[in-house]
Design brief:
Number of helices: 13
Largest sheet: 7 strands, mixed
Distance between the termini: 21 Å
Strand order of the largest sheet: 9-8-7-6-10-11-12
Number of strands: 12
CATH architecture of the domain at 198-352: 3-Layer(aba) Sandwich
Strand content: 15-25%
Helix content: 40-55%
Order of helices and strands: HHEEEHEHEHHEHEEHEEEHEHHHH
Structural class: alpha/beta
CATH superfamily of the domain at 198-352: NAD(P)-binding Rossmann-like Domain
Length: about 425
């Protein structure tokens, strides 16, 4: 009898654990993989998990320790690619799941990357700028042995920014003894960043939302939109919806929920958030209890905050015809089933929020060639890439009578496992 170890992926996990959510999604796609099923455990076992201690000097002279992670889920199709988040609730399970969803996302978009993700368990709101820089540089040094332009390319995520990417790029470059702009994406323009990168994820959400609405027969100019999260993704998507004459009727973030059936002005809300740190107290909308956000009448719902937000407890209350996932993993498998039974179309995260990694790919290519495109070309390439991927997944869903999420996993898992099978095992 063959001897094999039992990885974390096979240990009993809570249903709302992010890694468990991913495993359930893999189970749902297995019947469609044919002969590639013999390789499917590749997807259940991350290639590499690195846990690091991140000690820094605080401004008061004390030493603080933070826990950091970098997980490379799969690199069969190319170097790892995925963001780094700084958040007080970061866990290994979360980072594992996010890295796996990056594998699926990159394969679904047919980008030449595998999946990776990183995080540090820290509340950056409690750090000075100097302390944040020291956390970033120490974390980068600790994971430096597994990242690189041809190995694993980090990017911004929750609570990280182009400034953080600049520190990461500089730290890696100093340790390598040569400037290496391609080690991260989402950098400032002056350091080899790409035009259009900051807006790319929100633009991608809007692009696929419009296409999905068209297929459902929804007139985007007459649609009401509710958005959870008003960070980089939600704020950009809200502005693009408003520009297209849709009405943004509700917005929720960590500070509260606002509602205005006549429409919320995203530009004015953005100015309020920049001053007050959140949407709470915005004069252009009425305050609403957070739990009532899920009852807001709307045509399109965009969860663009954190994972695990749409659950079996609130999925039955959602009023939208279309859910477009701006966040990673915002809908649990149980909620997916409820929404499907209610004939609510869900455009999954691995397609809907792939605009960021798509333009990150463009940035990576531009850094290697030292030739940079204008923003019009980048946006045109982004739109074409996302619409092509969406249409392919739509056709698979129609042909096999499955959800868009399962169709995306069919396309992505097939590509990943074909690459794994063709490469074989070494040694």
């Amino acid at each position: 009898m063959p001897i094999s170890y039992t990885p974390l992926s096979f240990v009993a996990l809570a249903d709302d654990c992010p890694w468990h959510m991913f495993l359930q999604q893999i189970e749902r796609v297995e019947p469609f993989l044919g002969d590639l099923n013999r390789w499917v455990d590749t997807l259940r076992r991350p290639k590499r998990i690195l846990t690091v201690d991140v000690p820094i000097h605080l401004d008061n002279g004390q030493i603080a320790h933070f826990e950091g992670f970098r997980v490379q889920h799969n690199t069969s199709r190319g170097p790892g690619k995925g963001g780094v988040r700084f958040h007080q609730n970061v866990t290994l399970s979360e980072v594992m799941a996010l890295s796996a969803w990056m594998s699926i996302k990159n394969a679904a978009l047919n980008l030449p990357f595998g999946g990776a993700k990183g995080g540090v368990r820290v509340d950056p709101r409690l750090l000075s700028e100097g302390e944040l820089e020291r956390v970033t540089r120490r974390y980068t040094s600790e994971i430096g042995l597994v990242i690189g332009p041809q190995k694993d390319i980090p990017a911004p995520d929750v609570n990280t920014s182009d400034r953080v990417m600049a520190w990461m790029m500089d730290t890696y470059s100093m340790n390598q003894g040569t400037t290496s702009t391609g080690v991260v994406t989402g950098k400032p323009i002056a350091l080899g960043g790409s035009l259009g990168r900051r807006e790319a994820t929100g633009r991608g959400v809007f692009t696929v939302a419009c296409e999905a609405a068209r297929k459902l027969g929804l007139d985007i100019t007459k649609s009401q939109v509710a958005i959870q999260g008003f960070g980089n993704v939600g704020s950009v998507a809200a502005q693009l919806f408003a520009n297209a004459q849709a009405r943004v009727v509700a917005v929720q973030d960590h500070t509260g929920t606002i509602f205005n059936p006549s429409g919320i002005n995203p530009c004015l809300l953005g100015s309020h958030v920049s001053v007050h740190g959140g949407v709470s107290g915005f004069a252009g909308g009425n305050s609403l209890e957070n739990d009532l956000f899920w009852d807001v009448p709307c045509d399109i719902l965009v969860p663009a905050a954190l994972e695990g937000q749409i659950t079996s407890q609130n999925a039955g209350r959602i009023q939208a015809s279309l859910v477009v996932e701006g966040a990673n993993g915002p809908t649990t498998p149980q909620a997916d089933d409820i929404l499907a039974d209610r004939h609510i179309l869900v455009v999954p995260d691995v397609i809907a929020n792939a605009g960021g990694v798509t333009v990150s790919y463009f940035e990576w290519v531009q850094d290697f060639s030292s030739f940079f495109w204008d923003e019009q070309e980048i946006n045109a390439r982004l739109t074409q890439t996302m619409l092509t991927a969406f249409e392919a997944i739509w056709q698979v869903a129609k042909e096999k009578q499955v959800s868009l999420r399962t169709a995306a996993f069919i396309v992505a898992c097939t590509r990943i496992l074909q690459a794994r099978a063709l490469r074989g095992l070494y040694p």
